Protein 1
Amino acid sequence: MTSPTKEDIAAARAAVGYHPADSNGDGHVSKEEEQMYLEFKRKELEDADAMRDAQRKMAWFSLAGMLLYPAIVLIAVLVGVDQAAKILGDMAAVYFVSVAAIVAAFFGAQAMQTKPKK
Ligand SMILES: [Ca+2]
């Protein structure tokens, strides 16, 4: 077999489509295009990382609120603000379901993302 000629490479590239870094579509990745592409990729990764951090923080915050809720009710009773304790008690049902939904959505999304893609 002979080594691929320039025409072969061009044909292969045409079949696959342009390289994603080749933003002006001239079939050649220049230095600027390469840098732009790498910068874009880096930003993408940073965004994904920031999103994961935000979601994790939210899940932890929700869980902490859920665990501290009874303690807050207890404190309200002990301090003697009965009205606050009563309102917190009335809110509890809605609150727990909402927080459970947030946490479930977080772990569900995590599970879906970590599942290997076929
Ligand atoms: Ca180009």
Note: Residues 22, 24, 26, 28-30, 33 surround calcium ion (CB under 6 Å).
Protein 2
Amino acid sequence: MRSSNSSSITPADSGATETFAELLARVQACTVCAAQLPHPPRPILRASPTARLLIVGQAPGRRVHETGIPWNDPSGDLLRQWLGMTREQFYDVARIAIVPTGLCYPGTVKGSDLPPRPECAPLWHPPLRAAMPGIRLTLLIGAYAQAYHLGKRRGRTLADTVHAWRDFAPDSFPLPHPSPRNRQWFKRHPWFEQEVLPALRERVGAVLATGDNGNVNNQA
Ligand code: SF4
């Protein structure tokens, strides 16, 4: 573990003229909760000032931490299947930003990933979101992303929130986490595959179709 260095990395450091690259460099250099992480901080995100779709997940798992590529795991494979996207389309950072609720791998307890660090989203999501004015839709994947971005607008359960996806349109789209561990959840909630996924593909396709470099809507 590394010691915390919160005094040197805060959004308050940013000047009005900070470039996107400078903001990303500050994010990548963050050590705010280093003392609570099992490894030296390795913020994992993909972002660009031209992105139109923002994907907010939980936090990197071990495999993602090791490779440095978000959603580079079985959960990512299922998410791409839900979206009807190839890896190439999914990782087109000019159009799709990926910013988890916690940017660094938080470690595991008894084989389960720990929650995202609570310091992270309040620190980095506002400046990153402000630096991506072209975002038209944010996918909120899992309870942690929904808790941070929806707050009291969430339903009583994750299923309630996802089932009420229309209430969060057109800006946000809540989804369950596509972890293989959630297979039983998918079986217990067949409306998700039957009703929500087609709507998700249609919405994502519409958002990306108005961009200037791709045809993701044709792949759904
Ligand atoms: S989890 Fe977030 S707040 Fe903590 S060190 Fe990584 S980037 Fe910084």
Note: The pocket of iron/sulfur cluster is lined by residues 30-34, 41, 43, 102-104, 117, 119-120, 123 (CB under 6 Å).
